[in-house]
């Protein structure tokens, strides 16, 4: 019986023979060179005229030949790595001309419509990149924006904020990305072309990162929201420096964490929480994580110094346990990933710990606390005013797209993941394309995924 790899090799050999290949998972077939005459020219498609030189037939054929050569070399190598061959096959099979763009449209508050013939997200800027999506991550913001009607500038709109795929086209001034590259990105809701719940996504060049060699497409689809939010929250807003071995002159902390500094994290089993715990540990911070009993082991495996199990405990008991866990140090950073109630409890824990204990002044009293409420809370949502030493931050992930200098955080995140220092969350893949996005978001809304990330394979 042939092995799984030999089946892969057999399929991939078809590339070198210039046969038409229909990939699994619903990806449109590549159009071979002998059919080029039947394909509309670049000038007749929705492509910016300044980019025509980069999308003409000759340059596309050259990329195809290079992909063929890469596959041939991999197949000729003794005991080749199947994952590497698969990725090379993706590069080859997803190079297309004249593609159709399927999309999951938000047509009204709380309403979706699936179409297989939506506007192709053409380039509008010479520094933009068009990516053909392979995997998209599902996040709470995706269902919340549709259910509650925010972050929807007009109808129809396309949501979805993270994906991994293959570069389909690049603008005339793009230098760091080329057609056929395997990449991931994080997007901004204000541009419908960047909504990830469609087969083709157009984004600025600085938001496009290479796929780490040790990650699958589905794993990379967890980096654009959960991974990047954790990295920017910790390194940018909470002012925790990147580990020394990866330091950059563009990133500095006014108050580097000390050995006794704690990060209080409510929601440590979430995918963002898992990334945050690992990044804090790399920065030599101890993490106090609040989570459920069934995810306690997961949180400890990510590096949590203390896990406060919330099951069956009153609010007062949780606050007291958090304070006890930090009794030999001080809480200097706080992140809430759940909601207004838990954010208020975080504030109480910091306020309580700033009082004297048994007649001895607690070290927390003189520590500035930076609080990042990532679950849509501001100071007015708290049950009490924050203590004088607490500064509530406004975390805006749109800065990654709007400010090119923020790309440094994504590059450092990518480096840590690529080196195996930072582990992505467990991924549950939903096979079946855009049709499964709604069902997946329903599951995200219900919660209790046990620390797993839902990703849809297109």
From TrEMBL:
The keyword Oxidoreductase applies. The keyword Nucleotidyltransferase does not apply. One of its GO terms (molecular function) is oxidoreductase activity, acting on NAD(P)H. InterPro entries: ADH-like_N (IPR013154), ER (IPR020843), GroES-like_sf (IPR011032), NAD(P)-bd_dom_sf (IPR036291), Trans-enoyl_RdTase-like (IPR047122). SMART domains: PKS_ER. Pfam families: ADH_N. Residues 26-61 are annotated as: Disordered. Transmembrane segments: none annotated. This is Enoyl reductase (ER) domain-containing protein. It comes from Cyphellophora europaea (strain CBS 101466) (Phialophora europaea).
